[in-house]
Amino acid sequence: MHDKTGESVERLIEEFLTDRATRKPSPHTLAAYRRDLTTVAALTGPDGTTPLPLDQVPVTALSPRVMRAAFARFAAPRAAASVHRAWSTWNIFFTFLVAEGVVPGNPMPAVGRPRAPLPRPKPLRGEETPEELLAAVASETGRQRDPWPERDLAVLALALCAGLRLSELLALRVASVAGRAGERRVDVAGKGGRPRTVPIEAGVDRVVADYLDSRRRRFGARSVRPDSPLLVDRRGEPLRRGGLQYLVESCYRRAGIGDRVPRGARLHALRHTFATRLAEDGASAAEIMRLLGHASLASSQAYIEVTAGQQRAAVRSNRTNQAVARLVGGG
Predict the structure, then answer these.
(1) Given 85, 196, 215, 268, the catalytic residue
(2) Ranges in the chain annotated CATH 1.10.150.130
(3) pLDDT band at 292 (very low <50, low <70, confident <90, very high)
(4) Bridge-based pairing state of the strands 195-199 and 177-178
(5) Which family does it belong to (predicted)?
(6) What is the helix (H) or strand (E) element at residue 27, kind and residue range?
(7) Residues 6+ apart with CB under 8 A from 245
(8) Whose C-alpha in 76, 88, 177, 217 is 20 to 30 A from the C-alpha of 199?
(9) Interval 57-70: pLDDT, tens
(10) For residue 198, what is the DSSP state?
């Protein structure tokens, strides 16, 4: 194996970014990795005032003491969230270097980091906005070139009444909606490889069933095999990230509620609305944590187990579920 211990930080950063690119992160994520690595690395000099040329910084120079000093300089003018993100990037970078045999250990545990601030919920604004959105999308309009209200309503119902992330929606298969009558559920491939089960009520189940019936009429019975992607585009192809985002944006436009969607949380606003309404309607923090697939309530709070019956009761009390049921005559 080629000895890389004498290589420059600049070269190793490029190797690391090449490795991360194989995991298909967004261009924004890769750009953030590069920015955090190069900015902090340039501050590893003796005084930190003159940026160091990265091709002249050997990786062996990045001791815990040097990294602590560099992060102190980096943190001075920046918000805690930015420092926390950069720390995480460097931790991933050193983990890569250890795995490659470039360095014997990761110095980042010896470098202090601020606690990551908890993100503020960004639900749809307006007491009746979710109901207005569902009603507008359920009504087929002549303005659409190829309307498919059954599919669009299924997407919104799963996001608003099951709290699914964009990636979780895209990963759903036809067989992901399962269970006996009265105990229907969505089996979700959650963030970080953590699977979870979210109960769904009769209204959402009916919406999904109506969508699958419409899909059979469009593309034939083979299109709804159990292992087929649950969400498809108007050509019958699996929905992709951009297509799903555009679909939700178009639903907002058709409902005329674009001004009630928080900036930077277009599809995620539906998930946040699910969680916010659960809390408003009496669900405990532990129930919300379990239903949304969070790893913990907060870094200082232990994970609390709840029963499936408690989860179902929490979902049943959700007013958005009741609105979906009324739309399809299920309650």
Answers:
(1) 268
(2) 9-110
(3) confident
(4) unpaired
(5) Belongs to the 'phage' integrase family.
(6) helix 27-41
(7) 166, 266, 267
(8) 217
(9) 888 889 999 999 99
(10) E
Give, in words, the CATH class of 9-110: mainly alpha
For 234-274, the pLDDT digits (tens) are 999 999 999 999 999 999 999 999 999 988 788 989 988 88
Active-site residue 211, yes or no? Answer: no
Please confirm, yes or no, whether 2 is among the known catalytic residues. Answer: no
Q: Which of 35, 27, 126, 108 is nearest to 66 (CA)?
A: 108
1, 37, 2: which is closest to 20 by C-alpha?
37
294 in active site:
yes
The encoded tokens of residue 303 equal 């994970």
The residue type at 209: A
For the chain, where do the domains classified as CATH 1.10.443.10 start and end?
129-327
271 carries an active-site annotation: yes
Residue 268 bears catalytic tag: yes
Single-letter code of the amino acid located at 142: G
* Residue tagged active-site, from 254, 271, 290, 312: 271
150 CA to centre of own chain: 24
Among the listed residues 165, 185, 206, 290, the single catalytic one is 165
Given the residues 65, 194, 253, 303, select the one marked as catalytic: 303
Which of 78, 294, 319, 326 is labelled catalytic? 294
Q: Among the ranges 1-15, 223-237, 316-330, which has the highest mean pLDDT value? A: 223-237
Nearest to 291 by CA among 125, 179, 108, 160: 160
Comparing 78-82, 252-256, 274-278, which segment has the lowest mean pLDDT? 274-278
Mean pLDDT for the chain overall = 85
